[in-house]
Each structure stands twice: as structure tokens, then as C-alpha cells.
Amino acid sequence: MNKKTDAILRKLSEIAQNPKQSVLALMRRTGKKAIGCFPVYSVEELIHAAGMLPIGMWGAQTDFLHADKYLPAFACSIMKENLELAMRGAYDMLSAVTISSLCDTFKCTMANWHTVLGDKIPVVPLMFPHNRKTQNGVDYLIRELRSIQTRLTEISQKTVTDADLADSMAIYEASRQALREFVALCNDYPVTVDAKIRHLVIKASYFMDRGEYLETLNELNAELKAQPKEDADVVKVVLTGIIAEPDGLLNLLTDNRMRVVADDLAQESRQFRTPARPGLRAIEQMAYRISDQVGCPLLFEEQKSRGRMLIDLAKNNKAHGVIVVLLKFCDPEEYDYPICKAELEAAGIPHLMIEIDHNAKNFETLRTRIQSFAEILQ
Amino acid sequence: MSETKLTAKALLNQMMTEHYQGAIAAKEKGQPVAWAASVSPQEIFEVFDIYLVYPENQGAAIGARRESQKLIEHAEGKGYSSDLCSYARVNFGYADIRHCEAENIPMPDLLICANNICTEIMKWYENLAKELKLPLIFFDCPYSLEMDQTENRVRYVADQFQDAIRQLEAFTGKPFDEEKFRKVQEISNENGRLWHSVIRLCQNKPSPLNGFDLFNYMATMVVNRGKEKGTELYKLMYDEFSAKIQSGQGPWKDREERFRVIWEGIACWPYLSDTFKTLKRYGINIVASSYFDGWGLTYEVGNLRSMAAAYDGLHLDRGIEFKVRQLVDWVRQYQCDGVIIHSNRSCKIMDFWNYEVQRQVEKITGKPVVIFDGDQTDPRAFSPAQFETRIQAFAETMEQYTTGS
Predict the structure, then answer these.
(1) Is B403 helix (H, G, I), strand (E, B) or coil?
(2) CB of A256 closer than 8 Å to CB of A371
(3) Which chain A residue is nearest to residue B118, measuring alpha carbons?
(4) Which one, A359, B175, B233, B387, has the greatest CB density within 10 A?
């Protein structure tokens, strides 16, 4: 690895592993307000156009002192972590949070947040449509986005013109293109980019100014392309699920010579795999990006194309197998699993399903299962 | 209707038998049969003569007759997590096995879903559509965090009604009959009003009904909301229970109503008898529940936006403030001594606000609120002994509140 590549990877990894310091430094440097964006989808372009910083809120490990008073033991660990950290004051720098209503846990987390934290950090609700393929669904979302835009401008005190939004959309589209290029490049550089580094490079996008992130990622991609392709004896896997964290999980993959050649993770490729439709106004492009997304369990899809998509991802990237990283208590993922399982089996693609708790600290059981899977795939 | 006057309970049983037999007969004669989510806009489908059956209703019946576990285990064998809704797991099992002793329903030609009761049901029907290779008409009813519904969201639901009408015209090859639609809307509203008037009889002290009766009667409100035979039953119920009030009868013949409570959540169907007996032992009567209330939809006939607002306005599609206000109002209107909340392992939308609702309702009303763990249909997730212990302590607390000690 050359020095420049090493420096870029170090910079992005540090940002991704120290979100709070990164965000506070960014706020100080830019003087901008920050808006927390709950998984899985938000309105980053609108927040950016309103002169604010969209910040990803994908949880962080913590003990539960407060969240258990709002959510029971069988609730999503990321939602509990977000509530807990907010009640401990970790998100006091945020001017608001966006939470969608795409699943029941989001709805209830939104309701709890609004009740207990709403005076301090208000919720901007995102009622994305599930009937998103019809013209009525798209029109509804465009109107809904306009009302969210009004709410955000009240918080930022900056008027957003269509030109501002188009500028932000251009930056986000370019960064999504760069991310698609990066994940494709990872397959050619399995030594330089292991599973954890791949994840951290993507994760850094949530805690940086998007223009700056785009610039850094373009540099990284250029540096990677300038180097000779790397040949390594690795086990190639596709990851699918909400999130491939905590980091201990990805370390297990690396320990077993596994590399991620493609992903269908909500925190990763689901954010950037769907490009905006060209030739539309930016607000319409935002709506159609939700409409055009396929294979996401959080968005209604009668054809349920996720299984087919995973088969294609595995075949196109010459993967040895698929790991279903099932976030415990995530019902949209749990409903998809039996369908994907049957389709993967019918296609002869080996898969391993592992249940993860985002707040878990011990991985010994997972170690054995991942080790066995790696051995089978070799 | 025969000339011999039936009791409401006998009519209920007759109607439910007719409903299930009618579904099988409809299928045999080629009438389209749809599996529908419980608060789907049935009015639209009645117009097209589509026979609706409700897997949630069937799931409750299967649970109550203690047959759910084998179907649940079949679904879990396919990879469905035990964390998922047990109605869904029962239905996935039934969709494969296609037979049960409790209550059979014909396989559908069409699927109908509305997510105004939860989002899980959307995933459930998405899977059915995929597995059974059937068309699915889905009504997306946006959540309202605020007390008021927004115009944009109501319009979106009304637009989906129009989309569904076009889909059904294509599916059935028949044009939409506006006049028939209006008639079904009138019947549905009449039934909604009558249902509410029956529920309100429980405001009388003592209540003429025990809440478990309403759990049973509710089944007809699911299947007969848009039918004239429903009207017949709700009128009969109203007359019968009014007569009980006149004669001073309470919920039970052999025990007095000692405490009046709200039951929040679905019944534990496999343990209906256990929960009934335990509550009765302490003289605790269920007089209100949002579960009863949810099917009494009313709106302005002929106004699609008004109908959309009703379907998008259910308490399960609203924030905590709405929920708390509803419970607080009922505690006062129904003169309740406390609230029992079923922490239903199947149902995240009903569970994940309970702790805050409990705190707020207790604070505002000064009445105790107890939460117990259970499940609507999975018999493995409920312990009668734990329920008894919890209810015993709850009764003692209500006693202390009542006597002021």
C-alpha cells in the first residue's frame, strides 16, 4: 500500500471510529447546525441544502440505564442505543433528528423520542410512502418532502431554493457514484481493503461534510486504481442485512480470510446503489430514489426481488457464499429471510444466517459459525 | 332470519359459521375470495362481490381452540423467527398445510392489506403474495405523530382507494358501481355507530357485559362491517344488553363487578378461559378496550377523503399523546379503577410505547396500570401462574386506591 492510500484510509477510519469528536470538530469548523438522521433513509440533500450537516445515527455500544424504561428487551438494539445515548446527552449538539415510519419500531421510537426528548431535540418525522411505485405515491412523497423542507428551513433559518437543492443533489449523486466505484474496486484490492476497512470508509460518509467526503473518496479511488491489482487467497462473501457491526463481527471475517465483495446492507450499499433519475428537478429525484429502490425490506415490494438480487450479486462478484447478518428483533429482515433462504438454496448458493445484537460484546459463538462457514466455502 | 327469536350469542355463532361456510361455498362456485387484513377498506371490495376472509380472525379462532402451535412450528421450520407476529406465523403454517380442525378458510384469489394496524402486516402479505403468486392490493396508511392528521396523508390514502378501484375493475372485469358503494358505506357507518353504542353500554355501572363477550362479538365486526346482517346483530345486542341494564344485571350471574378496567391489547386467545377466570375471581371486569373500539369506523358517506381519514386515523397509527388521551378519557367515561396492558410478544406497535403510556396514564388519572407479558396466539409466550400473580397484586392495588389506604 502506498503512503497516500494509507493516509486516506487512516483518516476515514479515524472519523468513522470517533463519530462524536468528528462531528463536533466539523460543527466548529463550519459553524453549521447538525441534524441526526436515524436509519435507514433520510433527507440528506434537503438538510445539506438548508446549510446544515446530516449526521448518521446508527447506534453505538452503551449500557442501558434509561432506554429500558421506554423500549422492552425485544426491541431493536440500535433504536435502544440511540434513545439511551440521547438521554445521556450524547446528542445534545443536534438541532433535530429525522426518524421515518417505515417499520413499527421506528414509529414507536419516534413517538417515545418526541415525548421524552422532543423539547430538547425535536423530531422531524419522515412518512415515506410504501406504495411508492404508483404516481400517487410519488406525488404524495414530493408534497411530503416539501413540507419537510419547510420544517428544516425553520430550524436552519435559511431559505432553500430549487437551485440550492440541485447543487446538494449533485454532490450527493457524485458521492454515491464514488461509493459504487469504491465497493467495486474493493474486489481488486483484497489486501489493502479488508472487511473492516471497507466498512469504515463507507461509514465515514455519515460524519463528514459530503463535499469533503466526495473529494477524499475520489482521491482514494484514484490511488487504488493507480496500484496493481492484488491477488490474495480469500473467501469472497456477500453481506446482507441492516448493518455489519459491531466491528468484532468484521474482524471475525478477516480472521477467516473472508473479504466482502458486495453488500446489501442498509448502512452501506442500500444508501447509494440507486442512482437518481436524470432530467428531473432535485425534489423529484429524491422521491424517485425511494420509488426506484429495490430489494430493501423496509420498503414495500410486491415482487420481493431481494433473493434474486442476492443471487445476482453473488454470481456477478464471484462470491463463494452469502452471509445474512440478521439484526435481532428486526422484523422486516426476519420476514425476508425465509424467502431469501429458499431462493439462495434453489440457486445453489451457500449462505450462513447469523443473528447479531448491535450492543453485543462477545462473539465466541459467532466465531465458530463463521469459521465453519469459511471452511465449507473453501 | 328465522321466526324464532335468537339471542345475540346464538346469532353471533350462527353468523360466524355462515361466514366460514359461505367462504368455502363462494370458492366452490368461482366467486373471487380474498384474504384481507382486519381493518381493510372492505367497502370497496363488497361493491365488487369479492368474498373477504380474515386470517387474523382465523388465527384468533385457531388460537382459542388451541391449535396454533403446530402451525406456528411449521412456519418456524421454514425459517420464520419466533419474534414475528404469531398471527402471521399461524397463517404461514396454514398457507402450506391448508387444513386445521378449528376453522378452515379457502385459499385466496387475491390479497388485501392495509397497514393502519401495524407495519408487520405489510411484510406478512408481501410474503403471501410472493409465495402464493397472487396479486396484492395494498393500502399504505401513513403514521401520524401529531394529534391531527395532515391533509397530504389523507389525500394519499384517498388516492389509493381510487387506484384500488381501477385495479379491481381490471381484476373482475366489472365497472365500479357508485350507487352500491354508497349503500355499503351507509351500512358500514350504521354498523359502526351501532357497535359504538353497544360498547358504550359498558359505561353503565355495573356493566351489562363482561369484556370477554366483546372479544367474541368483535369477530363479527371484522367480517360483517359492511353487511346488513351485521346491523341485525348489533341491534339485537343493544336491545339485549339494555334490557340487562334495566333489570340491574351485571357481567356475571354468580359474581358482582368489583373493579372496572380497560384491557389494552389483543386477548391471549389460547388462554382465554384462564384469563377470564382469573379476572372474574377478583371481580375484575373489562369495560373498555381500544381493541373493541378499532372496528367502529364512521365517516361522511359519499366522501372518499372522509373515509380515508377514518382508515388512516386508527389509534395504532397515532402517537403517544393520542393514545394517552384516549385511555384517560375512557378511565373517566367508563369509571375505571385501573388499566391492564397486554405486552403482546407478537405486536411491537402495541408494545413499544406501553411504558410511557403507563406512566402518563397513572399520573393523569391516579389509577394503577399493570403490564403483563403474553401473546395473542403463541401459547409458549404466556404463563397462567405469572398472570395470576400479577392480577392478584393489581387487584390489591386497586383495592387500596379505592379505599384510600
Answers:
(1) helix
(2) yes
(3) A104
(4) B233
Q: With CB atoms and an 8 Å threshold, state whether A107 touches B81.
A: no
List the CATH number of the domain containing B87: 3.40.50.11890
In a domain, B120, yes or no: yes
Distance CA B331, CA B335 (A): 6
Beta-bridged to residue A321, according to DSSP, are: A237
Write the burial class of residue B89 (CB in 10 Å: 0-12 exposed, 13-18 middle, 19+ buried). buried
Q: Does B161 touch chain A (CB under 8 A)?
A: no
> Could you give the CA distance from residue B315 to residue B322 in angstroms, rounded to a whole number?
7
The reply to whether residue A335 touches residue B150, judged by beta carbons under 8 angstroms, is: no
At B1 the pLDDT is 42
Number of domains chain B contains: 1
pLDDT per position as a tens digit, A194-203: 999 999 999 9
Average pLDDT over residues A364-374: 94
B124 in any annotated domain: yes
**CB neighbours of A314 closer than 8 A, spacing ≥ 6?**
A238, A262, A321, A322, A349
- CB count within 10 Å of CB B371 equals 19
Residue B4 has pLDDT above 80, yes or no: no
Domain of residue B99 covers: 11-176
Q: Which three cell numbers stand for residue B56?
A: 387474523
Query: B159 — contact with chain A (CB < 8 Å)?
Result: yes
Q: Has residue B2 got a pLDDT over 60? A: no
pLDDT over 80 (residue B404): no
Residue of A331, A336, A340, A353 for testing the chain B interface, max B β-carbons within 10 Å: A331
Q: Which residues contact B382 (CB under 8 A, 6 or more apart)?
A: B268, B270, B271, B373, B374, B375
**Secondary structure (DSSP) of B64-107:** HTT-HHHHHHHHHHTT--TTS-HHHHHHHHHHHH---SS---PP
Tell me, yes or no, if B345 comes closer than 8 A to chain A by beta carbon: yes
Any domain includes B61: yes
pLDDT at site B337: 98
- Residue A71 cell numbers, joined: 423500549
Domain assignment present for residue B318? The answer is: no
Percentage of residues in chain B having pLDDT higher than 90: 94
Confidence of residue B403 (pLDDT cuts 50, 70, 90): confident
pLDDT digits (tens, 9 = 90+) for A346-363: 999 999 999 999 998 888
Spell out which residues of chain A touch residue B343, defining contact as CB-CB under 8 Å. Answer: 72
